[in-house]
Structures are given as C-alpha cells and as structure tokens.
Amino acid sequence: MCVGNHDQLRALVGGQERESKILDDIEVVTQARNTLEAVHLVQLGARTALVCQLTGLTKKVVSRLYPLLTGMPSPPGQVPFTDTWYLKSNQRMLHANVVWRLYQHLEKIGRSTSSVLIHVYETYSAIMDAPLLTLTRAFFVPRLIAINAWYEQSCDHCGISYIGPLGNDGSTCPACTEYFKRRCRSCGTSIEYRPAGRWKATCTGCQEQQKLNKKRHTCGVAHGCPKI
Fold first, then answer.
1. In whole angstroms, what is the distance from residue 213 CA to residue 206 CA?
2. Which domain holds residue 35?
3. Is residue 184 part of a domain?
4. What predicted TM-score, i.e. pTM, was given to this entire model?
5. Using one digit for the tens of pLDDT, what is the confidence trace for 18-38?
6. Are 150 and 84 in contact (CB under 8 A)?
7. Which pLDDT tens digit goes with each residue over 194-203?
8. Does residue 99 share a domain with residue 39?
9. What SS3 string covers 155-211?
10. pLDDT at 228 over 80
11. Average pLDDT value over all residues in the chain
C-alpha cells in the first residue's frame, strides 16, 4: 500500500475516533442533564413513573433517588388520565388555567419537556399563595388539550381565553363562574352565596322585575289587556 493510502487510512481512523469521543461526551452530558432534572423533579414531588417518562432514566435509578433526596420512597399513584379531579372545583380550574398560561410562554424557550415542567411548576408555586395542583396535576394540564378533552374558548361574559371542556349552555370561564355565584347576572348586585343546592342566578329585585315583565307581555299579547 502506498504512503498516500496509509495517510488516508490514518486520517479516517483518527476522524472516527474523534467522532466516537464526541458522541461519548454528548452521551455523558445528556445523562448528567437527565439526572439533574430527575433530582429536581423528585424534589418538586414528581412520582417515579413521571420522572422516568420525562428523563428516560430507569425505574431502578429513579427509585434510588427518593430515599437519598427525601428520606422516603416515591409517593404511590399513577399519572392522571381524566379531568374529573379538576372539574370538582372552580378554584382547581382557575389554577389549571394559570398553569396553562405559563406553559404557553415557557414551552417556547426550546428546552426539554422536563425542564419546561420544572420552570412552569416553580413559577406557578411562586405566584400562587396556596397552590392546589401538584406537579403531576400540572403536567397533565397540557395533555388534556393534546387529547382533545379540553379546548381553548372565549368567555361569553369577560371575553378572555381559557381552557376547559365544551359546555352545553355557552362559554363561561372559571373566574366568571365563581363571580356569578355571588352576583346577580342581570345587575351585578351581591346576592347571598349558597355553597349547597342550586345557586341564584338573579337577585330578588331582578326576579320581581322579570316576573312583572313576563306578566305585562302575557297580558298584553294574549288578552289585549292594557299595560300595567
């Protein structure tokens, strides 16, 4: 084999070795990043299954992190698969919408899914006095959009965009739903809040006015009576 061929072979082998070293270095960095994110997720309360899903680490590795970081095993339970828990409270829906807004801003930064979740949950926990959503619940909020369980809608009352299941009687955001528990939908007057039973939609004054208007209409149209 001529000298030129030896030089080409040496260059080829050297290039492959450098490429292999670069790939090994990338793998080490990726593994380190995933481990750091797993540590962060565990500290925020994520369960083993979710940490494994987001970081790609094995269940064995993640399970060993919990007693090292928290002194306790991973909390039991699986990732949510329905929106039942959120729909039980307007407060929960309000918090879910805060998380969704944060996702809209932070998912544009080009980080990994686990990194975005960490940023979202830390921000959510910082701005809410009493966070209602665990990290796992926060993770599931954008999934409800992805699986078409929830949709982005515009509130008929305040006009803001929010997420939730489609309703049969118009579109009302959680904030307006909570507001109208205590306010007349006609005049805005404060009304007595009833935590149980059917909520009042209008105050006593508006109810009487509606009855009077209905009586006038019925009497005038059906019987030709003079207006009251």
1. 10
2. 3-69
3. no
4. 0.71
5. 555 554 455 667 788 888 999
6. no
7. 555 555 566 6
8. no
9. CCCCCCEEEECCCCCCCCCHHHHHHCCCECCCCCCECCCCCCCCCCCCCHHHHHHHH
10. no
11. 80
Please indicate, yes or no, whether residues 57 and 89 belong to a single structural domain of this protein.
no
193 domain residue, yes or no: no
Residues 97 and 137 in one domain: yes
Single out the residue in 69, 103, 127 at which a domain terminates: 69
pLDDT digits (tens, 9 = 90+) for 156-215: 989 999 999 987 777 899 998 888 877 776 776 776 655 555 555 666 667 666 666 676
Does the residue 135 lie in any domain?
yes
pLDDT of residue 218: 67
Q: Answer whether residue 188 is part of any domain.
A: no
